[in-house]
Design a protein that fits this description.
Elements: H1 14-58
Transmembrane segments: 18-40
Keywords: Membrane, Transmembrane, Transmembrane helix
Amino acid sequence: MVMFGAPEHAFTTKEERMIFAICILIMCAICNIWIVEIYGSKKDKQLRLMDLRKMTKEA
């Protein structure tokens, strides 16, 4: 299937538009979770490194 031509052929039914919208929402949710995990884990890693340093000094 070639997608060149009239744009109304891209989404013919409401169902297809709904599926497309849901897919975009899912992708946005996954990206947001991924970003939160990265930025949230940086602080956690710093705290863990501090704890490890304390433990190694005590040992």
